[in-house]
Amino acid sequence: MDGVQESGRYVGEPDGLNRLWTPHRMAYVGGENKPKDSSQDQCPFCVIPSKSDEDGLVVARGDLAYVVLNLYPYNSGHLMIVPFEHVSMYSEISNAVMVEMGELTQRAMHALQRAMSPSGFNIGMNQGEAGGAGIAAHLHQHVVPRWIGDSNFFPIIGQTKAMPALLANTRVQLADVWE
């Protein structure tokens, strides 16, 4: 298999495991598209709404928040609900933004159910750098569709996720069923 190497040839102590190298993930690990500072002009979540839906991978827009595909998804269909306002913490948003984010989350789940028939969902927010937020300066909520058995050896052992669909195609698929 291309990209798989015997561990004993490239590490200090052989451990009997093969390695599946995924150099494309270095863009994420290395911070590609991550803002250099917390200012709005550097923030991808502030820039995305100015792009076309296709270029920004936007699935839907509300009055106070929008729904976008994750550029570095955990699973196919991994969406984020993002307020237009540049705030970092859930405690900083208004009740109106909170309600719209909740409504968009429900609509995202319905669209994902219609388009992809997941068995379940992970929904959550990582807030602050210490909380695991990749872009800590701008609040965003993840909606990750899950299927029975989607945690196979690739992500658990190989630290790799096989994605069966291109992001642009997934955006169209979800936008088409969005209500």
TrEMBL record:
Pfam families referenced in this protein's UniProt entry, alphabetically: HIT (PF01230)
HIT domain ranges (all copies): 44-153
Protein name, UniProt field: HIT family protein
UniProt motif Histidine triad motif: location: 138-142
UniProt-listed Gene3D superfamilies: HIT-like
Superkingdom to which the source organism belongs: Bacteria
Assigned keywords, A-Z: Nucleotide-binding
Record organism: Populibacterium corticicola
